[in-house]
Write a structure and sequence with these properties.
40% helix, alpha/beta
Length: 257
Amino acid sequence: MLVDSHCHLPLIDGGSAGMPGILARAAAAGVAHMLCVSVDLETFAGVAAVAAAHPQVSASVGVHPNTENETREPSIDELVTLAEAHACVAIGETGLDYFRSQGDREWQRRRFRTHIRAAKVAGRPLIVHCREAAPDVIAILREEGADTVGGVMHCFVDDWDTASAAMDLGFYISLSGIVTFRNATALQAVARRLPLERVLVETDAPWLAPVPHRGQQNEPAYVRDTAEFMAKLREEDLATFAAATSGNYARLFDPQS
């Protein structure tokens, strides 16, 4: 059994088969569960509706760090209320992205702190986006006491020191299709070193399709390709790797299971 720990189901073009087709293809690939992740409050209702309609889908609530002046700013109270009302398993995605945002990015850091504080009130783990901002991400997680809730560094692309610092705060490291890319040798070296009990896999669908689907629209079924690549990279049996990463997901997002 595999889990896609991060996808955006409402953004995937399911073709003529629609959402049932996406979910059926995932099941056929051995993907038993998916976490549908929120990127803004305006489209959160769609994320929550998908999760409510399909028991194999969970939801999160949060606002992506790259949407200044494009979305309503979240408050701690609103994030907590939405998480509780819609049985969301996580707060996010949140974090910092210095690749796309220029100039004074203090607004990103304020938003990130709001999400961390909401996660602590709601008792939910965090889904953290980090791009070219690792020192600030780790510093803010420490300053805000994010180790009390933990979470996941989603679509991880940073170095071993960043992974180690995040794991010291109780965070898991999630690998996307990027790890399968030919030029991802530095990331592959980090992936080999990660303790199995701290690894998750994801698609980030509809983006970042793994080899051999690179350049195509991504979907949860393709998390199997990433898992197969990771197992081979780490010289582990696929069944063992799949069971471990699914167990990691359950411990982080569904500790009562």
